[in-house]
Amino acid sequence: MNIAAAADRLTRDLPCHRVEILQGRLTATPHDDGTHALILTRLTEAFHGAGARTAGLRTLQALGLWLPSGPEDYAVPDFSVVEQTFMESEPREHCYAPDAFRMVLEVTGDHWSDDLAIKAACYAQAGIPVYLVADRHHDEVVLHADPEAGKYLTRETYKRGTPLRLPESVGVSLTLPADRLLDGDAD
What we know:
Blueprint: H1 3-13, E1 17-22, E2 25-30, H2 34-49, E3 57-61, E4 64-66, E5 74-75, E6 79-83, E7 95-96, E8 101-107, H3 112-125, E9 130-135, E10 140-148, E11 151-159, E12 163-165, E13 175-177, H4 178-183
Domain Putative restriction endonuclease: 15-176
Pfam families: Uma2
Protein name: Membrane protein
């Protein structure tokens, strides 16, 4: 059985888990808690208020993304900002090409080290303009931007009480409190 077939089988056998292939490694993580869901909901609301739809963007949760790090590699980011035309490209196994993505966000859970290191490398290799990590393990938000030659040139951290302005490459003007990205309820 190849890794793609194993991933398909895990997806069927573990219905409450997110299955991904990262750098040729199969991962399965359980669905997250209510705080995680609240963070994503508040982020969707913020992008809507900033005019994402008018700017030709869509915000989606758990949208599959093909990765160039391996022939079977894909990720399922917690939150994505994509071009409204993302569905015009041919999806492979319910995953979309990276060129439609403007930003992806991961909210850390049990596998927080994957979010901080492996996914940062994979998303940079894919050319995703902005990768944001709500790192609940270290209580900070990490912004990666400006991918070049498979690495992000910019890496900034934001502690609680600090506003984070998203780079222009996302496509909307939006400043978020780091607290909202860490616990979902901050204003």
